[in-house]
Amino acid sequence: MQATARGDRQAFARLYELTAPKLLGAGVYMLKRRELAEDVLQDLFVKVWHRASEYQAERGGVLTWLYSVQRYLALDKLRAQRPTQELDEDMSNTLAFEGPDPSAMAMSNDMAARVHKCLDTLTDVQRRSVTLAFFEGLTHAELTQKLQTPLGTVKSWIRRGLVSLQKCLEQ
C-alpha cells in the first residue's frame, strides 16, 4: 500500500490483482447486482489510487480497509438507487432483460458461495455483526442498539470476523 501511495503503478496493479476478485464477490453479495458491484469496485480503486496515503496499517489490514471503503461506496450506491427502484420495477415487464453474460454470473455466484462458506466459519456473534454491518448497512451505533452490546465489543466482533473472513478467502 505504501508503494501505491507513492504512485507506483505496478504496486497498484498488483494490489488490484490480489484483491479485486474478493472485493467483487463481496460487492455482488452486498448489492445483489453484478453491474452495481463492478461500478463500486471501479470507484473503490479510483479512490484507493488517489487516497492510498490515508491507509493506516496500525488500524487494520489492507483488505479490511478496502472492504470498509467498499462498504461505504456500496451504501451510497444503494441510496442513489432507491428513488428509481419503483420505476425500475414498474418497467420490468416492458423492457427486455439485459443481464450479464452467463460466465460472469457463474464467477460472481462462485465468489458469493465462497463468501457464504467463509461466513459459516465465523462465530455466531461475528457472523451476525459482520452481516448486519457490511451486508445490511447498519452503523456501529445501530449495531450496539440491535445487539444490546457495548460499542467496543461490537467493533471487536466485526474486526475479528473480518480478519477470519480474509484468511478464509485467501485460502
TrEMBL record:
The keyword Transcription regulation applies. Residues 114-164 form the RNA polymerase sigma factor 70 region 4 type domain. Pfam families: Sigma70_r2, Sigma70_r4_2. The keyword Lipid metabolism does not apply. One of its GO terms (biological process) is DNA-templated transcription initiation. Keywords: Sigma factor, Transcription, Transcription regulation. It comes from the Bacteria. One of its GO terms (molecular function) is sigma factor activity. Residues 15-82 form the RNA polymerase sigma-70 region domain. Gene3D superfamilies: 1.10.1740.10, Winged helix-like DNA-binding domain superfamily/Winged helix DNA-binding domain (1.10.10.10). Belongs to the sigma-70 factor family. ECF subfamily. This is RNA polymerase sigma factor. The lineage of its organism: Bacteria, Pseudomonadati, Pseudomonadota, Gammaproteobacteria, Steroidobacterales.
